[in-house]
What we know:
The chain is α/β, with parallel strands linked by helices and 469 residues long. The protein is 45% helix and 17% strand. Strand 2 (75-76) and strand 3 (79-80) form a beta hairpin. Helix 1 packs antiparallel against helix 2 (18-42) and helix 14 crosses helix 15 (419-428). The radius of gyration is 36 Å and the shape is elongated. The model is unreliable at 145-160 and 324-344 (pLDDT under 50). Residues 141-165 are annotated as: Disordered.
Amino acid sequence: xxxxxxxxxxxFTGVRSASSWFEVYAAFSTFMMLLRTAINDLVPHQxxxxxxxxxxxxxxxxxxxxxxxxxxxxxxxxxxxxLFQAAQEYLPTRITHTYKSLKLGKxxxxxxVILAVxxxxxxxxxxxxxxxxxxxxxxxxxxxxxxxxxxxxRKSSHQSDPDSFLLTFDEKHRxxxxxxxxxxVLTTYEALKADQRTLKIHSLSSGHWQxxxxxxxxSFDTLALDPDQKKTIIDDxxxxxxxxxxxxxxxxxxxxxxxxxxxxxxxxxxxxxxxANHLKFDVYDLELTSVYSNSELMRALRETSNRxxxxxxxxxxxxxxxxRSTTKSFSDSxxxxxxxxxxxxxxxxxxxxxxxxxxSSGGEERIIIFTTNHRERIDPALLRPGRMDMHIxxxxxxxxxxxxxxxxxxxxEGDHRLFEEIEGLLExxxxxxxxxxxxxxxxxxxxxxxxxxxxxxxxxxxxxxxxDL
Length: 469
């Protein structure tokens, strides 16, 4: 090899013609062949691979000088990094059918198969004209020499290095990515988490909340309500959700009260379940007969979580909230509230104070729902706006709402030859959705079920009965 180098040097010093240039080329080619042979024979394969990877990385970095990379570790300051969790949930929503390297899994707590990205393929996202690339850096693929000291310490304590996400984008979009795109990922994650969470229903027992899964399937699509009334309720709930900043601006606690009233069997419990499923809120069923003092009521309400619905059913059955003497004008004054104080029980004053004061001192994004069969029996102090903001009258079944029941129980979509007659009979009679639903379930054949319902409604109309059982 030394002789070859000497020959090349000699050729360079004596270059005088085209033949001399050819001699230089031949000598250099011979030198490169000898050098490659020596490297292959003397340098281990692992070292050669390492050198080539470093060279590739060096020239790649030189080429992408305008790119910014943000590393999102699985842990931050000893705790789970919420941004890592957000990326984990967000990125599968950006995967298309063109991706060829994915992960699938399922846990006992999930109903469906879970889709996730792996480290072998980048996920490309677009946001307001910005192209962003995500890559999962799995622990098994990381070079320990590239980890900072803190990651070495964590690795020794956890026995395995955590994963990371690498987000890459053009440097000129740095502000938009940090100030708008990252919050967008977090907001999407919160929405996905709320949609996937298992709702709970809590019941007060011996002074403590006992929880179980809320499995009631009711939704606004399945409720037998007048379409206009249903839309009004949905719009009100959605408006409440998006007005956090307005409540804060005007100095009001972020809560809303609803009163559901009407005859038994008109769907009050189903509407509560539909509201919970729509909002993705847990439900707290507060049975006032199990509350024995104002302090116990305060403690029970303080233990409820944010994003929850507190339900007090059949409020008219509780003496503490019944209408005071009709000979006396109603007032919200403390003196007036004292008139119904019952020793050893909570008072209307206590209930009103908790409704007005508790929400501003602890918790937000809460809804309280009272149900009653007799609104006229409830003390007006409890019903005024700010406590019960929206009064929803659930009455007897009428024509438009009947078609929802026909779809739910009989699978009939669109029109039917008997619908017009049934709707006409419903307008002349007073029968609850529960009664009609029970008749529709008696027969498997839709034709037989509808004909039997027509016969029942005609008999009801001729007798002039009001059926609400």
